[in-house]
From TrEMBL:
<dbReference type="InterPro" id="IPR016082">
    <property type="entry name" value="Ribosomal_uL30_ferredoxin-like"/>
</dbReference>
<protein>
    <submittedName>
        <fullName>Ribosomal protein L7-like 1</fullName>
    </submittedName>
</protein>
<dbReference type="GO" id="GO:0000463">
    <property type="term" value="P:maturation of LSU-rRNA from tricistronic rRNA transcript (SSU-rRNA, 5.8S rRNA, LSU-rRNA)"/>
</dbReference>
<feature type="compositionally biased region" description="Basic and acidic residues">
    <location>
        <begin position="133"/>
        <end position="147"/>
    </location>
</feature>
<dbReference type="InterPro" id="IPR012988">
    <property type="entry name" value="Ribosomal_uL30_N_euk"/>
</dbReference>
<dbReference type="GO" id="GO:0003723">
    <property type="term" value="F:RNA binding"/>
</dbReference>
<keyword id="KW-0689">Ribosomal protein</keyword>
<comment type="similarity">
    <text>Belongs to the universal ribosomal protein uL30 family.</text>
</comment>
<dbReference type="Pfam" id="PF08079">
    <property type="entry name" value="Ribosomal_L30_N"/>
</dbReference>
<keyword id="KW-0687">Ribonucleoprotein</keyword>
<feature type="region of interest" description="Disordered">
    <location>
        <begin position="133"/>
        <end position="155"/>
    </location>
</feature>
<dbReference type="InterPro" id="IPR039699">
    <property type="entry name" value="Ribosomal_uL30"/>
</dbReference>
<feature type="domain" description="Large ribosomal subunit protein uL30 N-terminal eukaryotes">
    <location>
        <begin position="83"/>
        <end position="144"/>
    </location>
</feature>
<dbReference type="Pfam" id="PF00327">
    <property type="entry name" value="Ribosomal_L30"/>
</dbReference>
<feature type="domain" description="Large ribosomal subunit protein uL30-like ferredoxin-like fold">
    <location>
        <begin position="160"/>
        <end position="209"/>
    </location>
</feature>
<dbReference type="InterPro" id="IPR035808">
    <property type="entry name" value="Ribosomal_uL30_euk_arc"/>
</dbReference>
<dbReference type="InterPro" id="IPR005998">
    <property type="entry name" value="Ribosomal_uL30_euk"/>
</dbReference>
Amino acid sequence: MDKKKAGIFFLFDQDSKLIKIFFIYYYLTFSSELISSFNFESSATGRCARNERMFKHQRRRRSRKESGGIMAEPESQKVIKLVPEFLLKKRKAYQAIKATQAKLALLEKRKVARGKPVNFKRLEDFLKDGHRKHRDETRIRRAEHRPPPPLPPAGNKLAFAVRIREIKGVSPKVRKVVQMMRLRKIFSGAFVKINKASVAMMKVVEPYVAWGFPNLKSVRELILKRGQTRVGRRRVPLTDNALIEQHMGKHGIICLEDLIHEIFSVGRSFQPANNFLLPFRLSVPRHAARDKAGLLKDLGAPGFRGADINAIVRLLN
């Protein structure tokens, strides 16, 4: 190539900051291969511009598709496997059972959280509760002006009290004494040490509680069959001497026989031993549900029963 007939100029592109070299030649003929070899930068620039336009077009199309301008192409339909009819029926029945169980569990949870539902109370029930409360208050007020009841013989130091009547609508004083004796539920029993205060308490709850003097056989059967204590928040039956020794060893009670002897003899550790025992939950005969009058006749009237309390213990134990 003739150098005199060619000139080289360097031009700067301010936009892309690239140096472009232009060969200006005059009166020269170049072959096509030489021209293509020197035109590589212009072809790359065109390719970049074309790619940029394509990218803008794809981005614009994607934005229109997301905005709802262009409907999405329908996906290929999936092949749905056929399920036998008996399996569908079985699945439907199972789902119905699970839904019923979930509903019952939710109702039970609400019942436990909020307590029992409020029952409708008739006007006659309010009148009956009011009369019972008035009778209790009148009876207690009259008993305060009477001489105190005589104490039982010195040989009888232990009493067993069992609640055989409902206490709905009673006087607050009666309810408080019942709670102090730990007879919160009907047909529950507890041992009581005989003294002046306990006899006065028995007089307050006399229309609802039967009490008397249990023998050694009744005390043994109650503790062996119904004896329970509380460990944490659980009721635990007294079937292990290690448990008794762990809680009552400091009072000299290490086994079940020691506990029975301490309760019956009303020794020095009677109060801790009695507190160690939970109130006895006595059972009701099966015929009580259909023959309530017969059950009350078998139990007899509430109040002081003396040695007849052993018959009640055998009936309810």
